[in-house]
Design goal:
The structure holds 2 protein chains of 2 kinds.
Chain A (H helix, E strand, L loop, with lengths): L1 H19 L4 H27 L5 E5 L8 E5 L1 H29 L5 H19 L3 H19 L6 H32 L15 H19 L8 H7 L2 H11 L1 H14 L4 H24 L3 H28 L3 H36 L10 H4 L1 H14 L6 H23 L8 H29 L6 H4 L6 H19 L1 H16 L3 H40 L4 E4 L17 H11 L5 E5 L14 E5 L1 H20 L8 H22 L1
Antiparallel strand pairs in A: 1-2, 4-5
Helix pairs in contact in A: 1-2, 1-4, 2-3, 2-4, 3-4, 3-9, 3-13, 3-19, 3-20, 4-5, 5-6, 5-9, 6-7, 6-8, 7-10, 8-9, 8-12, 9-13, 11-12, 11-17, 11-22, 12-13, 12-16, 12-17, 13-15, 13-16, 13-19, 13-20, 13-21, 15-17, 15-19, 16-17, 16-19, 20-21
Chain B lengths: L5 H11 L2 H14 L8 H10 L3 E4 L4 H18 L16 H22 L3 H32 L4 H33 L18 H4 L5 H26 L7 H25 L8 H21 L2
């Protein structure tokens, strides 16, 4: 654990130094990105050691906080979640070192770097904490530091409102977690996780209640529907390297927390799996539908986080169903798929947010319908964004497909497990069916969405001046994107290798022993080999076909001409299909779920001059649930306004009355 | 599993696939009382295109160059998972139908990107419709294949298709419904009437044809060849359900399944000659209807199993 300690110190030291040097944004960026990178490298050494250690690493010390103790540990589950935290934090920090000073202008960046290091350290602390109080402490620091990071551009009204939404949402989640940890701590008789194994013996109704608390608490951080409303606000408002960290790894702490608690509950409850599959299906399908309707690149990516969290929930859900029905292979593949998707999503979502940041850096906008033709102007950013798009759409030969395939295989095996047992009723097949059909629908919609995002932003002609005058971003920003693209390809091409990595994680999460986890996963070995070889062949054969094409065209006339426009002589970039029109038919199919609010141009007089048209996708959960709810709370609170009239005398009177009432109560109790 | 005989399937597909569009067009010509283009016209087209130069849009990037190549290659690789008649595919694993469907997804994704590359509103329109229909067709295909997997108790395409012959008796209803759905998916994925009209003359009404407006020469040849292969693949998926091969002789079953593919092509030609194209906004209804039928088939496979 000593390396983790050093890593935390290095990261914090970088943050504090840059806080002190905040006036020079170059120095601040240098110190903190150095500190974070050094810390990440140290941390990664420890993580890989822990991943294959036979006994989980742990460290324990006294802590003066009531019920708290400084218990930390890294088992393979923690290690798996720490890998993306360190990798993505380091790469985003390197990216931010170039990005943030440019974005900030004359604003001081020291505090932003300080909060970033605090965020990274608190994420690490959440993942290694083995005491409920320590966990909540780290959880709260994580929420606050990310709030300050979101509010970097607080001079803008929309950023302030996004920050406010985030602060409220995260604390509602934390309130549920407080309740959850309090009950769990009382029931287990200790706040140390090491003694929480007894929780699994609780009666079902109580377990169900606690599970609901945990799902709401952790789910609001992970961003499951309908608790997702803060994501599409906060991610676009934050600087892009921060969005990458928040979306890539911070929301995964919600998944981590839920998994950690489920280990204490035991996975032996089939309804738990059903519930998770239901949550996963709604988040996955609605997340990608909302993403499709967005025309701001970063909001689109934020809704895709909701979708991917849904996919992870589907995997955990089908895995839990597998454990509960005693099918080891189903369980192992479901959890392996979900956990690998946690890692994969961090890689490609980080990549895509950094790509969106580069677009913003170079064109000053992320509004998709103002962009276009960027691939010619920003070749490296464009190519990496394409890699990210293929990966997030879950298409071979990249990593998104590998983890989704594992979840598919788990659901398929569950169907054959049920068929073999012959006892299963027809409805017990439904969870597996909706997992498969849901994943297929999500996959189809996601590729539509990224065909739109990549196609409209990077292909065609620039629609406005910002896009036509853009140029490639500096090397320091390109390098992290290249590294992340490489990582996406690596996992896509080395599926069988990655599968071995999952064995220790399965051992520590669903308590299969190493041997049965290995034999369960060996089912997936051959499919993974086929997928890896298909991916390799895809790449090489494409190369061969491209060579053939080149040979064929070598001595022939290759001319360029304007795009075919039915003979119209003056093509203008405005005539291109926009993102909104591209998505309109698909979004229209689901118009009961996704509303597009439009304000059509109003024509006045006989000779109207100019007109404008606006369309905004509206989130029905925000407008239908949370807005009325908070309006109601506000109204109720205002009803008591007369109590607070500003007169100090009256307040003293309240205090006196309260004390008197307490005194009477105490006396009455005697 | 790896099966060397499966290489014959791949070779047969690569050689014979361009015949399928030829047969469809011949059928349509016969219905219309025309003489029609030669049966081998698709081969001539591909060879002619391969020998031409290219005209490339000003707006195009390397995506237009690599897109047709990737999509052709992805379809070719999916061939290695496709069984032909009773003969197993070259590669198979339990769950390979997922990889199969996703490889076709890769092919589509890159055709769509090449369409958007030219920055034309027509091509954007075609791409938008294509992704809409395929987003609906993909789960439909998956559920109907799952139904077949359920009744034949195997989750690899080879296992499914070799097991079907013996399951028609017990699960006739479910298999029949799945076959109907597969036929609709065949029409949708290959842009045939009533979803799309390959012979339409107006850019505004096209789907597949408009997406490739700005491609020419070898690129268009790759797209045309890829489309023929895709037609072969879906005809084989459908034909293999209707007439599952049970012959013990390998050569005989190969021959019979190839002729079933050609018969399916005739059926497509008949549909195209006798039906009008659906209104664009009715297509999603057709596809979601097909998805519901597929779900029904899946559930029926339990009730009557």
């Amino acid at each position: 654990m000593i390396l983790t300690g050093f890593s935390i110190v290095a990261i914090l030291l970088g943050g504090v130094l840059s806080l002190l040097l905040g006036n020079s944004s170059r120095k601040a960026a240098l110190f903190s990105s150095l500190g974070i990178s050094l810390g990440a490298i140290l941390g990664l050494f420890q993580v890989f050691a822990a991943l294959f250690a036979s006994v989980p690493l742990s460290f324990s010390a006294e802590w003066s906080v009531p019920y708290g103790s400084f218990d930390v540990g890294i088992d393979s589950l923690s290690a798996l979640f720490l890998i993306p935290v360190f990798i993505l934090s380091a790469l985003s920090a390197l990216y931010g070192a170039r990005y943030l000073p440019e974005l900030a202008g004359r604003k001081s960046t020291g505090s932003s770097w300080f909060y970033l290091s605090l965020l990274i350290v608190s994420m690490v602390a959440v993942i290694i904490a083995r005491n409920a109080i320590l966990f909540l402490f780290a959880w709260e620091i994580m929420a606050l530091s990310s709030f300050f990071l979101v509010c970097f551009n607080s001079e803008r009204k929309n950023v302030r409102s996004a920050g406010w939404t985030y602060l409220v949402a995260t604390h509602i989640g934390t309130a549920f977690l407080f309740l959850f940890f309090a009950i769990a701590g009382v029931r287990a008789g200790s706040f140390n996780f090491s003694e929480w194994g007894t929780l699994s013996s609780l009666a079902s109704p109580e377990l169900f209640g606690m599970f609901l608390l945990a799902v709401v608490g952790f789910g609001s951080k992970a961003g499951v529907i309908p608790l997702h409303v803060w994501l599409p606000e906060a991610h676009p408002a934050a600087p892009s390297h921060i969005s990458a960290i928040m979306s890539g790894v911070m929301i995964k702490t919600g998944i981590y927390g839920l998994l950690r608690m489920m280990i204490f509950f035991g996975f032996d409850h089939i309804w738990l799996g059903y519930l998770l599959i239901f949550i996963g299906l709604t988040s996955g399908v609605l997340g990608v539908l909302y993403a499709l309707a967005q025309h701001d690149l970063k909001s689109l990516l934020a809704y895709h986080s909701v979708e991917n969290i849904g996919i992870i929930f589907l995997g955990i859900g089908i895995g839990t169903v597998g454990v509960a029905s005693g099918a080891n292979v189903v369980a192992a593949l479901g959890f392996a798929g979900a956990l690998l998707h946690v890692l994969n999503h961090a890689l490609f979502k980080g990549l895509l947010f950094l790509g969106a940041g580069s677009v913003l850096y170079s064109t000053r906008t992320t509004s998709i319908d103002r962009l276009g033709g960027l691939l010619k102007r920003m070749p490296v950013t464009g190519a990496s964004f394409l890699v990210g798009s293929v990966a997030i759409a879950g298409l071979p030969p990249l990593n998104g497909f590998v983890s989704e395939l594992l979840i598919y295989l788990s659901a398929i095996l569950y169907i054959s497990h049920l068929s073999a047992s012959n006892l299963a009723g027809i409805w017990s097949f439904v969870p597996a069916l909706i997992t498969i059909a849901g994943l297929a629908l999500i996959g189809g919609l996601a590729s539509a969405c990224f065909a739109k995002a990549f196609g409209v932003v990077f292909l065609g002609e620039p629609r406005e001046e910002g896009a036509s005058k853009s140029s490639e971003v500096p090397m320091a920003m390109r390098l992290p994107m290249i590294v992340l693209s490489g990582a996406c390809a690596f996992i896509g091409l080395c599926g069988p290798l990655i599968l071995g990595l999952m064995i220790p994680v399965l051992v520590s999460s669903i308590s299969l022993d190493g041997e049965s986890a290995g034999s369960a996963l060996s089912f997936a070995r051959w499919p993974m080999i086929v997928v890896a070889s298909a991916a390799t062949v895809l790449i090489f054969l494409t190369g061969a076909v491209m060579y053939l094409r080149k040979r064929l065209l070598r001595r022939r006339e290759v001319t360029t001409s304007p795009t075919w426009d039915c003979g119209y002589e003056l093509p203008s970039p405005k005539m291109q299909y926009t993102a909104s029109s591209f998505a309109a038919p698909l979004v229209g199919l689901f118009k009961s779920l996704v509303r597009i609010r439009t304000s059509p141009p109003v024509l006045k007089d006989f000779f109207p001059d100019g007109g404008s048209y606006e369309a905004h996708p509206a989130d029905i959960f925000r407008e239908g649930i949370f807005a009325p709810l908070f309006k109601f709370i506000q109204k109720t609170a205002f009803a008591f306004r007369w109590l607070q009239n500003g007169s100090v005398h009256l307040y003293i009177l309240y205090i006196a009355f309260t004390l008197l009432a307490l005194l009477l109560w105490k006396l009455g109790g005697l | 599993m790896m099966n060397m005989i499966g290489l014959i399937n791949i070779a047969a597909a690569l050689v014979l696939a361009p015949l399928v569009p030829g047969i469809i067009n011949r059928t349509k010509a016969k219905f219309a009382g025309r003489k029609g283009a030669p049966l081998l016209q698709n081969y001539y087209d591909i060879i002619k295109l391969l020998r031409k130069g290219a005209v490339i849009s000003w707006s195009a990037t390397w995506i237009s160059k690599i897109g047709p190549a990737i999509s052709l290659v992805a379809v070719m690789i999916s061939l290695s998972l496709l069984p032909l008649g009773g003969g197993a595919s070259f590669l198979s694993f339990s769950g390979d139908l997922i990889l199969f469907a996703y490889l076709l997804g890769v092919a589509r994704f890159f055709v769509v990107l090449s369409a958007l590359d030219a920055g034309s509103s027509f091509e954007g329109m075609g791409a938008s419709r294509d992704v809409m229909f395929s987003a609906l067709a993909e789960p439909t295909l998956m559920i109907s294949l799952l139904t077949l997997a359920r009744v034949s108790d195997s989750f690899s395409l080879s296992g499914i298709y070799s097991g079907l012959a013996s399951s028609w008796g017990g699960h006739g209803m479910a298999i029949f419904l799945a076959a109907v759905v597969l036929f609709i998916v065949l029409l949708a994925e290959n842009s045939r009437i009533p979803i799309d009209d390959p012979n339409t003359h107006l850019e505004l009404t096209m789907i597949h044809e408009v997406m490739v407006l700005d491609l020419g020469g070898p690129d268009l040849a790759f797209i045309t060849y890829g489309a023929a292969l895709k037609l072969w693949i879906f005809s084989s998926l459908f034909g293999g359900v209707i007439f599952p091969s049970s012959s013990s002789s390998c050569a005989l079953s190969l021959l019979s399944s190839i002729s079933i593919i050609f018969i399916t092509a005739i059926a497509v030609g008949v549909v195209e000659s006798t039906m009008a194209r659906l209104k664009m906004m009715r297509v999603p209804q057709l596809l979601s209807g097909a998805a519901s039928v597929a779900m029904l088939a899946f559930l029926i496979s339990f009730l009557l199993g």
